[in-house]
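Hello, quick one for you while I still have it in my head. I'm working through a protein record and want to make sense of it properly. Would you mind checking whether the tokens look sensible for this chain? I owe you a coffee for this, so here goes:
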Amino acid sequence: MLRRLPSIILIGLFLSSCMNLVPITHKRLINSYPTTHTFNLPLESLRNLILENFTVAKQYKSKVYNDLIFYYYVDILGKKSKMLVTFKTETFKDTLFSKDFFSTTGTDKDIYLHAFGNYWYSPIYYALGKPLETRAQFRLRLIQINKNQTQLIVEIEEPVVIKGIGGLGPDGFYSKEIKVKSTTIEEYSLIYYLANQIGDSTLQTIDLEKNIK
């Protein structure tokens, strides 16, 4: 059966299967980023601002968001083009990917973020000297400290990197997903974007060039 496949498919299959054997290398994050931040806003106000600013239009419009790690490249007519990965919000009233999360108690004020399975390049996990594709979902937990302050906790859900072939399904070969640990970069990037959008200038800049070895 394999002999009937076009040679280009065989070559692609060979290269992809070889990736299964290649070890994952890790760059080192000198200092982890915080995954929580306290905003000087009532809980409902902060929640509404999160829903307002995590729309596709707002993410595309923000220069800060465009400079974050949530992107990948595609080849269009021989030219490399940057594609932005944007996130969609879900609440307990509208669940698609978040049914399990919102089935637990105490989540009715929280927000779930997903990117419909789209990937971006990991700044930490590499193979053969190239960043691996990564994807994850995020749980935004809101905790009221007092009537004028709310703590935002960003929890990453099921972070994976994509490397090699995972198996053969009805539609052909599918990629292998490998579970990885949080880098804290993704979580902080979401907090940093939100803070910038609502005028909170108290957060440190991300500056990965100085913080990754």
In short: The two ends are 46 Å apart (CA to CA).
